Amino acid sequence: MTYRDRLTKTLLCRATDRPPLPMWLGFGPWAQTLGRWRAESGIADLGVQKYFGLDPWFRGVPCSGFGPWPHFPEREISRTADFVISTDYRGITRRNRLDGACMPEWIDHPIKAPADWERYKRERMQPRLDERLTGLDDFVAKLGDNSAGVQVGSFPWGVFGTTRDLLGAEGVLMAFYDQPDMVRDIMDTQTSLWLAIYGRIAARVQIDCIHIWEDMSGRQGSLISPAMIEEFMMPHYDRIATFARRHNVPIVSVDTDGRMDQIVAVMTRHGVNGFMPFEVQAGSIVEDYRKQYPTLGLMGGLDKRALAEGKPEMHRELDRAARLIASGGWVPGFDHLIPPDVPWANFAYFVENMKRIVGL
Q1: Which domains does the chain have, with CATH numbers?
Q2: Is pTM beyond 0.90 here?
Q3: Distance CA 140, CA 359 (A)
């Protein structure tokens, strides 16, 4: 069985020769974590997938822009001993620590009013597929037997997620009430662009997964109500699901942090059949979702905090992994990237035990 078959069949809750153990978000380290591991292991060029012999994840199709194209020029505005303020390729201004030890602080966003969006759309959101997909020919030529499968869509592209980034969290939540037509048009324009890109790709290769990044929930649940998810977002999810059926794409997956119950309940009615990463500390217990949704593809959900605590806590998560593997339809992994408080020895111990559980 190929990596592609093993991963897609698992997410479709079908039988495989063994569980997949791929290198994805659920086993990925923060940059600072990888630096620590390289120092502690003494391996200067340490790479997690190569070191442990983990399975590959889906291959992403190269694209110059799933969002604004041409990109905004990246520009540094100011710098101190600890921080840098700059604008990125999407036109967003943010403050970052120079050591990369935290998420960015969002300072300013390119869309504040309908006129801003109309200009952004006119100047940056036209299809221009030949320019966006200059790497497609080379990707197809090197794809070979496609044993790892193909994914389209990735961070930071989502119906809500990208809209939130363009307007800011407060801005988008207010816009649902003050400028609902603008919100609908942003979501519609983005989805139309993505489907145009995906259509060009689907004409050349078989797509195995359409991935949608949303990150639209916290510990309290979704940032917008289920009724608003249904009204504003799901017409576009229906379009994506229709595309998936037309092109025989088996997996439509969503990435959202935090407590996911409200989101999963709505999105599973509109063609989504895979979710990640099930953050334990936010109350998203992956085993509960398996009981409630027996045919849903699940990814992640192991408590990453156990890696910093010790062997008893790690074996608690290894036992959880064994139960999830036995129930089927689960891709092993933690509930997000591995933070820098995790020692290399602990992570290595855990992964070697996971390899034994899956028979890798």
Answers
A1: 3-67+112-358 (3.20.20.210), 73-109 (no CATH)
A2: yes
A3: 32
